Amino acid sequence: MMQPGLYQLLFISTALFFIGVYGFFTRRNLITMLMSIELLLNSVNLNFIAFNKYVWADKLNGLFFTIFVIVIAAAEAAVAIAIIINLYRNYQSIDVDKVEEMKY
């Protein structure tokens, strides 16, 4: 079985990144926006792993950065879900347009 090369991994990572950006800017639901942010972070992790394997194979810096990003993403998701639950309790909606009065 053939393993994907650096260019194939970078292509997949770029596709994940742009799907995440598109989802973040076009969706108004907070859950789908959170999922889009997670796609962005996963594309960054894929870049770290790809460059660690193909460019600096003798070092583990990419793996350590990937683990750090996964930990930060888990904490970010927990805080974001807590905020979304609180918004739903107060406004009975998780639509971004309905909770704009939090600005003022």
Task: Write the SSE topology.
Elements (H helix, E strand, L loop, with lengths): L5 H21 L3 H25 L6 H31 L13
Question: How would you characterize the overall build of this protein?
Answer:
By secondary structure, this protein is mostly helical. The chain has one domain (6-92): Helix Hairpins (Orthogonal Bundle), CATH 1.10.287. It has helices at 6-26, 30-54, 61-91. Helix 1 runs antiparallel to helix 2 (30-54). It is elongated, with a radius of gyration of 17 Å. The mean pLDDT is 89.
Attribute tags:
single chain, 104 residues, mainly alpha, Helix Hairpins, 3 helices, 74% helix
Distance between the termini: 58 Å
Structural class: mainly alpha
Compute the CA-based radius of gyration. Answer: 17 Å
The outline comes out as: elongated
Helix content, binned percent: over 70%
Ranges where pLDDT stays below 50 over 5 or more residues in a row are: none
Characterize the main sheet: none
Instruction: Please tell me the total number of domains.
Output: 1
CATH topology: Helix Hairpins
Number of separate helices: 3
Give a quick precis of the structure.
The chain is mainly alpha-helical.
